[in-house]
Structures are given as C-alpha cells and as structure tokens.
Design goal:
The protein is of the alpha+beta class. Helix content is 28%, strand content 14%.
Length: 271
C-alpha cells in the first residue's frame, strides 16, 4: 500500500493564504451587464442576443461601462511597459571618453585650442566634440591641461559641428601636470632635490667637488670620510684636547693632585 505524503511546506503556506487567485482577480466584481440570451429563431430572441453581444463588445472596446472591464490590447501593454520603464528604471550614467591631443605652443592654451585643427581619432572637420561625461585633456607647452568648461560644444577651428562652436577661455583649463621639470612649481622648496641631482655636488669619494663658504674643493685621491681610515692621525698638533676622550677630565684631576702636593711640600718647608 502506497504511503500518502503529507503536505509540503509550500502547500501549507498556500492553504493559509487568502483565496486570491488569478482567476478570481480576473473575474472581478459581479457584472451588471446582462448575459447573452439564448438566440432562438424568432426575431425578438435574436434581437436580445445581438443587443447583449453589442453591449459586451462596446464595454470591451471602452465605448461604454468601466474601463476596468475593458479588454487589454497589445498596444496597451506596450504603453504600460514604456510608462513604468521611464518611471522606475535607474538612469544610466554616461562615463564618456577621454579625448585630446598635443596643441602647438604659440601662446595661451585657451587661445591655441580655439585656433587648433584637431585631427585625432575623436576629431571631425578640425573639431573636437565634447559630449556629457567626456574628459578633455591637451598637452600644451609641456603642461597637461584638463578642460572644465561646458559640454555639448565643439572645440577647435572647425566652427559649428554636431554642437555649436565654443571659444574656450582661461577659466576652462586647469593644469594637471607637466612633462618638463623646468615647468614645475615649488622646485626651490627645501628638500626638493637630493645632492646627487645637483651638477658638480656629490656625497663623497675621491674627486668629489664640495661646496663651502670659500668656493669649491675637489677631494684628492685617497680621500675618505672615515676618520680612522685617514693617514697622519698621530702627527703633532693633529687633534685638540677636546677631541681626545676623557683627556680634559684626567688633566683636571692631575692638576688638582699637583696642587695638593705643592701644599703639603710648602707646609713641610716651614716646620
């Protein structure tokens, strides 16, 4: 004997739901329109049937009755789809493209851009079209500039194109960097360069050129920055007393001892 399976979890949930179904929703409230009478062969009966069909057709075609009782046409579905797409869809963000090229350096960047014939892959008839979201950069006089002016315009010497021509102004361009060291700012700030980057000044070794108050000094062969590697360290007058570890303290202690001895010798002399 086969075992009956108990109701599934979904079946239990469905049983507890209100008795709303697609059939019930489509059925709607009771209709006030008469049903279709039986089309008997006599004229009054046929008239009643035809009249009922006509009323139902007019309701379906939205000529009478409630619009909620009318038929849904394919065109209605298309219009509803467009409506809800426009109302609830998330707008896409146009990230645009990065466009630009090298502009010859004859004056200010904004003036040179206005007279420049753009010929890159994004150009057309000497124009560079600025779409919303585009990033426009040009290299001009060893400086990289980015455009922050209006979009939906055409830059360059080609006049009107897809959009109206626009002559840029100084405020439209902001420098972003440079390909030339001499064009950079703050080059004279402290700690901007290592010693090795300064011509003629290095960090040590034979042949090194040092810069001091009197001018320059070139270290001879055998030059070293390590004291213990130097020759002549034992020569006379090579070091001051202060350069010898603990020498000043020991000399002071020796001087005190001599003074004490002198005092004792003096005391014995007068006894």
């Amino acid at each position: 004997m086969a075992r009956r399976r108990g109701p599934t979890t979904r079946a239990v949930k469905d049983a507890n739901r209100p008795a709303y179904s697609a059939a019930r929703i489509l059925a709607g409230p009771p209709k006030v329109e008469p049903g279709f009478p039986e089309p008997f062969s006599d004229t009054p009966a046929l008239y009643s049937t035809v009249k009922a069909v006509m009323v139902a057709t007019e309701v379906l075609l939205r000529r009478k009755g409630d619009i909620l009782d009318s038929a849904v046409r394919v065109r209605d579905l298309e219009l509803l789809t467009d409506f809800y797409d426009d109302r609830y869809s998330v707008p896409t963000i146009d990230t645009g493209k990065t466009k630009g090229e090298v502009v010859p350096c004859t004056g200010d960047v904004w003036t040179d851009v206005n007279t420049h014939c753009f010929v890159g892959e994004d150009a057309s008839n000497c124009n560079l079209t600025v779409e919303p979201g585009d990033t426009i950069q040009v290299a001009h006089c060893d400086v990289i500039y980015q455009y922050f002016g209006d979009s939906r315009v055409c830059l360059g010497s080609g006049g009107d194109g897809k959009y109206p021509h626009y002559d840029t102004v100084e405020a439209d361009w902001v420098p972003q960097g440079s390909t030339s060291h001499t064009a950079l700012q703050d080059r004279e700030d402290p700690d901007s360069h290592p010693l090795a980057s300064i011509t003629g000044i290095q960090t040590g070794g034979a042949g090194t050129t040092w810069l001091n108050d009197q001018g320059t000094y070139t270290a001879p062969q055998g030059f070293s920055e390590v004291h213990n590697d130097l020759t002549g360290r034992s020569d006379l007058n090579t070091h001051p007393i202060s350069a010898i570890t603990d020498l000043e303290a020991r000399l002071a202690a020796l001087e005190a001892t001599v003074q004490q001895l002198n005092q004792r010798i003096g005391a014995c002399w007068f006894v």
